[in-house]
Amino acid sequence: MEWWNYWWVLFPLMGMAGGAAKAWERGARRRHERRLETLRMKAELKTAEIEARALTQGRRRGPAIIDTTASVAPNDLLTRLFAEHDEITARWLDYELDVAKLIAFPAMSDGRQPLTAAFLRAKRTADALRPASAEAKVSERQVSEYLDAVGAYAVAFEIAEKDARRLRDSSFTDAERKRLDRAQQLLKVAIDDSATQAERNVAYKRVREELDGLILLSDDAVQVLEKQVAREISAPEPARRPEES
């Protein structure tokens, strides 16, 4: 008997497939909600940790830092938050300006990666809420918002960094990974003090060629790399005119 004689079987199968798709969608939504809740809880814990350290330091020096009746924030708390903020930014710049690290962990500079994008948004928020100085006249609400932003910034960085170290170069094709490997090897020559300047310049040029289209280097990263290569990449000498020979 031919298969089309069993056409009626298709209807329950289609129903089962539709039910499975809806179940998968519900499961995906729940997983997403759990991830968001985890991020929120981690941010709250980090915020509490920062605040607790600031309070502890204040008690050792004398009166408590936070006065809930005050209209402006004490300088010590803002100073502590600035230090936390700057520390996270420095850890990020350690990736952003180090080409070797960018090659090893490309997701840290890739805003298309969801967790990296979330970190960059948290950075913008923290930067925007940061008071001009520790002596700035700000309200308790402004300090509270900045405290929350620094906590979220810290958590977002740690999560993005962990994910980037997990991913490494797995999002690239085999051919692209080979290019990254060549760039990493050439980079060692480009910053090798024992190599001649000509060798370093050639290696630098090839590093840029291998990374072209794979990893976007910021202007600051290029500047740092050029200084490592030769303080300043030597410009080619102009061609001599015949009368100068």
Pick out its properties.
245 residues, mainly alpha, 8 helices, 69% helix, 0% strand
What proportion of the residues form beta strands (DSSP E)?
under 5%
Number of helices: 8
Could you say how many structural domains there are in total? Answer: 2
| Biggest sheet descriptor | none
Distance between the termini: 95 Å
Report the strand count.
0
Mean pLDDT: 77
Structural class: mainly alpha
Radius of gyration: 27 Å
Quaternary state of this entry equals single chain
Reading the helices and strands in chain order gives HHHHHHHH
What share of residues is helical? Answer: 55-70%
Description:
This protein is mainly α and about 240 residues long. The chain has two domains: about 25-60 and about 70-170; about 170-235. Helices cover about 70% and strands about 0% of the residues. It has eight helices and no strands. The protein is flat. The termini are far apart.
In short:
With 245 residues, the chain is an all-alpha fold.
Spell out the blueprint of helices and strands.
Layout: H1 10-61, H2 75-96, H3 99-104, H4 114-129, H5 140-167, H6 174-190, H7 197-211, H8 219-230
Helix pairs in contact: 1-2, 1-5, 2-5, 4-5, 6-7
